[in-house]
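To illustrate the input format used throughout this study, we show a single complete record. The first block contains the structure-token representation of the backbone; no residue identities are included at this stage. The design step must infer an amino acid for every position from geometry alone.
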């Protein structure tokens, strides 16, 4: 059940690394997770790679290093990089009002109370900007992270955030029919901002967002297994999604719709499917300040801009999904930046590390101080609500989420022990 690379970097303690596999495998043996794929590299060289457990429990299909995962919000940094590429070309600016490309979101109304009546609104004091989208300060909400009547209204109007049969125009029109939860620029509020950013990119370039992403970013980076759908010939590599079924006391498969062809709705905020190897290439590009294998994606100064906190002091005291996150991490243009390692659920290792996770338990981190990249992939659904952050980050229903700090801890212990 464990598939390892035979070679490890001499800069790390291999004995510590050997203990990681059995610790992670215990989560599978206890029935808390179906399977796990992990990867870690230093200086671009992979020194740790494991595939543990099952890609699909029912068919006893083992996890593989090239297993495909729904990476959910790990899609957001990818979409953000594409927007920054267009910004470098002068086609987009952080201060641009998005209504230049998305008139459906002109003249927006804002809820007087974000949990209040849908008809109790005030006018937006300004248009949403590109920067608002990149920093989740647009006022656009996700239904699961909302409370009050707007939660059901978002669900009814927009459908599933990741799997949807609407066209882009239909979806944007539906979004524009609802009020914002907050005034543009007022606070970080997790929502459909990056979906809107992706569709803005498509309209700006004059092609479907998926085509632009593939042509401009995925092909140049060699990310051949990353897309918004899985063709038939690759489906035996797709990991199944599982959730804890309390009555049965076990993991139960969550059946998700499969597309027969690339969908019209391709959400840049959460729709990508990828592998550890593919996503590693993306993160290596960021770690290398915008370049990978001789291909320049972004200028170094743009990558540095991406990794600078843009939240105001008052915004940093607003909880994220019930967690005190922004006093410990900043948020830049599509990524979180670790500033305080104390009880930080999304950052570890070193100050200055960057990350953004996915709701199904997927996580990555680039640690410039140690020239280290970590990738951790599972398919584990837990309930999401406006105050569920601590459950999502740590975890019987969510106990499997405790495997992530085990992975993080072993990698950094191996680094520390050898350094000592």
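Output of the design step:
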């Amino acid at each position: 059940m464990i598939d390892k690379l035979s070679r490890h970097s001499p800069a790390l303690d291999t004995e510590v690394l050997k203990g990681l596999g059995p610790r992670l495998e215990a989560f599978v043996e206890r029935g808390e997770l179906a399977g796990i794929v992990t990867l870690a590299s230093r200086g671009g060289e992979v020194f740790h790679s494991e595939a543990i457990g099952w890609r699909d429990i029912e068919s006893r299909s083992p996890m593989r290093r090239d297993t495909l995962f729904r990476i959910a919000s790990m899609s957001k940094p990818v979409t953000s990089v594409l927007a920054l590429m267009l910004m470098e070309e002068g086609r987009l600016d952080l201060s641009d009002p998005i209504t230049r490309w998305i008139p459906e979101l002109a003249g927006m109304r804002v809820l007087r109370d974000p949990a209040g009546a849908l008809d109790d609104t005030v006018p937006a004091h300004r248009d949403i900007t590109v920067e608002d989208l990149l920093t989740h300060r647009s006022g656009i909400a996700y239904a699961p992270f909302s409370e009050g009547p707007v939660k059901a209204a978002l669900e009814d109007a927009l459908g599933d955030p990741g799997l949807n049969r609407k066209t882009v125009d239909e979806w944007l029109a539906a979004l524009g029919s609802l009020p914002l939860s907050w005034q543009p620029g007022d606070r970080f509020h997790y929502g459909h901002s990056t979906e809107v950013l992706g569709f803005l990119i498509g309209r700006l370039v004059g092609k479907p967002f998926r085509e632009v992403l593939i042509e401009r970013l995925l092909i140049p980076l060699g990310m051949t297994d990353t897309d918004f759908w899985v063709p038939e010939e690759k489906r035996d590599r797709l990991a199944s999604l599982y959730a804890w079924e309390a009555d049965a006391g076990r993991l139960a498969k969550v059946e998700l719709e499969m597309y027969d062809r690339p969908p019209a709705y391709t959400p840049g905020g959460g729709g990508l499917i990828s592998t550890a190897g593919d996503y590693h290439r993306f993160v290596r590009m960021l770690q290398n300040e915008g370049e990978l294998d001789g291909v320049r994606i972004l200028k170094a100064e743009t990558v540095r801009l991406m990794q600078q906190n843009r939240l105001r002091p008052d915004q940093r005291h607003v909880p994220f999904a019930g967690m005190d996150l922004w006093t410990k991490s900043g948020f830049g243009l599509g990524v979180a930046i670790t500033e305080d390692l104390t009880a930080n659920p999304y950052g570890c290792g070193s100050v200055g590390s960057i990350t953004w996770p996915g709701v199904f338990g997927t996580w990555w981190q680039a640690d410039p101080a140690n020239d280290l990249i970590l990738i951790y992939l599972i398919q584990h659904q837990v309930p999401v609500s406006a105050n569920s952050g601590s459950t999502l980050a740590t975890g019987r229903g969510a106990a499997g989420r405790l495997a992530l700090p085990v992975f993080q801890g072993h990698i950094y212990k191996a680094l520390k022990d050898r350094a000592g």
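Structural context for interpreting the output: Confidence is low (pLDDT under 50) at residues 1-10. The first strand starts at residue 35 and ends at 42.
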